Amino acid sequence: MASVRTTGAFVAAVSISMVLFSYFLCNYRSKRKAPSPISKNKKPGNGLIHAVGNTPLIRINSLSEATCCEILGKCEFLNPGGSVKDRVAVKIIEEALESGQLVCGGVVTEGSAGSTAISLATVAPAYGCKCHVVIPDDVAIEKSQILEALGATVERVRPVSITHRDHYVNIARRRALEANELASKLRKTEKIDGKFLEQIDGCISDVEKKDSIFSSYCSGGFFADQFENLANFRAHYQGTGPEIWEQSGGSLDLFVAAAGTGGTVAGISSFLREKNPNIKCFLIDPPGSGLFNKVTRGVMYTREEAEGKRLKNPFDTITEGIGINRLTQNFKMAKLDGAYRGTDKEAVEMSRYLLKNDGLFLGSSSAMNCVGAVRVAQSLGPGHTIVTILCDSGTRHLSKFYDAQYLSEHGLTPTATGLEFLGI
């Protein structure tokens, strides 16, 4: 009898266990199948342009721990074109299309050290436009290769002063005029003939177009003018700045970045200072640039530089895309509390340190920005939250900034094991 009771109890226990197991299994499966609120509400973006912006803000662990500050980097290298300039390219093209200065099928021209050109070449096709860029012939060759792969027309020219008619920016401006002249000539031909005589695919015949580099660009040109076009400033005032504010929860103390056109540092600093006047904004300036003197002394050059000791080529630095010796309309909008100098060697060392300790493979301007973040942390002490911009990755800096032979020839071979190059 006891045996029967024992067997019955065992069967009952097994049955209850199976019921409970089935309940939990079904519940688990139902939870797995149920879509999360995020996946249910998230809609696909509308094309490439939707992917520009809203980049992550991350903690740079090694620098934060070394300085006892929270150092945060805005990962602009995750934009579809690979840099912070994607935002500028989108804003410039959209405003030009809205104003009628650029039409679908037209060509956007720009003078650039690389990043803005690549961004324009990336996003222009999404607007039905083409891209023609003029770049200095001393920038990393992979930038030209990327541009050509993107379908842009590339002119590489020797670096000269901005006052020279053949400065890359001035040439780009002329190219837009040439494209407009060609488009105007085409329209006149159509008006006179009343039909597309001697035209192929909407363009004038080879006889008429043989002397023009814009043989296939017949809808006119538009000079992006990233240095003076305030769409550059607006891209960061309306986009990057608000993102930083939201992602940091408004709890940041300092912002620091280098300047080329000045749009990034101006747009972000202006927005952040409006949100909280107590946020301090700083410039980090590379070799050969006059912006440090302008911010700290109110003049572009020191007395020694004015006496002819200044570098012949103001861009004689390994940090491409930052540093300038004139005031742009964009930079004039910046709200800065001070400036720091950085060196090429510090940028090189910083890039290797971040790669080794954080897995961050960054370009030269990004590395210089991180040098600036540490400089600010050292000056103002621990306990602050500092934000900077990680402009692009190292993939477009392989032939110079990451080339051992090039660095050796210029005395820039990295040797540091830690942050001793910044006194830490």
From TrEMBL:
InterPro entries: Cys_Synth/Cystath_Beta-Synth, P-phosphate_BS, TrpB-like_PALP, TrpB-like_PALP_sf. Its cofactor is pyridoxal 5'-phosphate. PROSITE patterns: CYS_SYNTHASE. Pfam families: PALP. Its main location: mitochondrion. Keywords: Membrane, Mitochondrion, Mitochondrion outer membrane, Pyridoxal phosphate, Transferase, Transmembrane, Transmembrane helix. GO terms for cellular component: mitochondrial outer membrane. SUPFAM superfamilies: Tryptophan synthase beta subunit-like PLP-dependent enzymes (SSF53686). It is found in: Mitochondrion outer membrane. Its EC number is 2.5.1.47. It is a single-pass membrane protein. Gene3D superfamilies: 3.40.50.1100. This is cysteine synthase. It comes from Populus euphratica (Euphrates poplar). The gene is LOC105135566.
